[in-house]
Write a structure and sequence with these properties.
Layout: H1 6-10, E1 16-22, E2 30-36, E3 51-56, E4 63-68, E5 73-82, E6 94-97, E7 117-119, E8 124-129, E9 132-134, E10 137-139
Parallel strand pairs: 1-8
Antiparallel strand pairs: 1-4, 2-3, 2-5, 5-6, 5-7, 9-10
């Protein structure tokens, strides 16, 4: 388990989300995991995230990142792979969201209803697959 909140996911009575991130295009740069609360108006809005964990991308395999939440409720997770580590969004960067909604160049921000997950008084595990731009589409690496 990775990140400054790792202890929360090891605590059987903590409200937290363990995010398993898969599908890296490159093993470079930084991975950012952000959590948003249950208000759809706050979803991906600047300054509205509840918490952010940033980590260097590991050399291989998936990355299990723990992110603590304030308590039981509805939350949404956004993941970004900053491939070059610049701290700025670029065309080569990857993205994923809780519940793995489909993305397109015309619809980069999935609807809140498609990503929201319930979290109780125990850590919740979810898996996300990174999507990258490929021509005129956005999809996981290796998918046609």
């Amino acid at each position: 388990m990775l990140g400054s909140d790792a202890a929360a996911c090891a605590n059987p009575t903590a409200s937290a989300v363990l995010v398993r991130v898969e599908g890296f295009k490159a093993r470079t740069g930084m991975l950012r995991v952000q959590v948003y609360g249950g208000n759809p108006a706050d979803w991906l809005a600047k300054g509205k995230k509840l918490r952010r964990i940033e980590l260097p991308v590991t050399a291989s395999g998936y990355m299990d990142v723990c992110i603590a939440v304030p308590g039981p409720g509805k939350y949404a997770i956004a993941v970004r792979h900053d491939v070059d580590g610049s701290g700025k969004s670029g065309w080569d960067d990857g993205a994923a969201f809780s519940r793995n909604p489909s993305l397109s160049l015309l619809h980069l921000k999935p609807d809140f209803e498609k990503v929201v997950i319930p979290v109780g008084q125990v850590p919740r595990e979810i898996g996300v697959v990174l999507n990258y731009r490929s021509g005129f589409s956005i999809r996981p690496v290796g998918k046609n």
